UniProtKB/TrEMBL annotation:
It is found in: Cell membrane. InterPro entries: Cell_shape_determin_MreD_prd, Cell_shape_determining_MreD. It comes from Bariatricus massiliensis. This is Rod shape-determining protein MreD. The chain crosses the membrane at residues 7-24, 76-95, 102-125, 131-154.
Length: 176
């Protein structure tokens, strides 16, 4: 039952962040740049919960972006987000709730890697070799905007994760 609650809560978080990213933040765009909230979720759950959960959250974030985001290739974003969630899962042992430096650094690095993969697969393969322009006008502004939004969104995700873990521990202690 508690596992079902965690799945539902994660699904709600993914859907809310996707809706915020595709609606509200379109109006709050700075120079047509919006933050990547799904990277924040994928990375955060990866280093908070481990490789497996990071991979699963990444898959569903990417699949949602593939299906509803208007991508041409089904599974393209799912694969990228899965890799990012899984790689963030390696840092689970270094993760401490009180330390915000590691999560901010990991989310920023995830955003940067995501942008490089997008450039390599969607632009460079189409013979668009203006990496300097892409770096200065898209990658870096999106990285900064996502990192600023992370300061607030990460605290919410961390609070939700703590509450779910406390409930799971209480229910586990009833059976012991």
């Amino acid at each position: 039952m508690k596992k079902l609650k965690r799945i539902l809560v994660c699904a709600v978080i993914i859907i809310i962040c996707f809706l915020l990213e595709t609606t509200v933040f379109r109006y709050l765009a700075i120079a047509s740049i919006i933050p990547n909230l799904l990277i924040v979720i994928t990375s955060a759950f990866g280093f908070m919960r481990g490789k497996k959960e990071g991979l699963l959250i990444g898959f569903f974030c990417g699949l949602l972006k593939d299906i509803l985001g208007g991508g041409d290739l089904l599974g393209f974003y799912a694969l990228i987000y899965m890799m990012i969630g899984y790689c963030n899962g390696f840092f689970r042992r270094l993760f401490y709730d009180e330390d915000i430096k590691l999560p901010i650094a990991l989310i920023a690095a995830s955003e940067f890697v995501y942008s490089l993969i997008i450039y390599g697969c969607l632009f460079m393969l189409k013979s668009d070799f203006q990496f300097g322009y892409y770096l200065g006008h898209i990658i870096m502004p999106e990285l900064v905007y996502t990192t600023l939004i992370t300061l607030g969104l990460y605290q919410i995700i961390l609070h939700i994760n703590r509450r779910l873990e406390e409930e799971e521990k209480r229910s586990a202690s009833k059976f012991v």
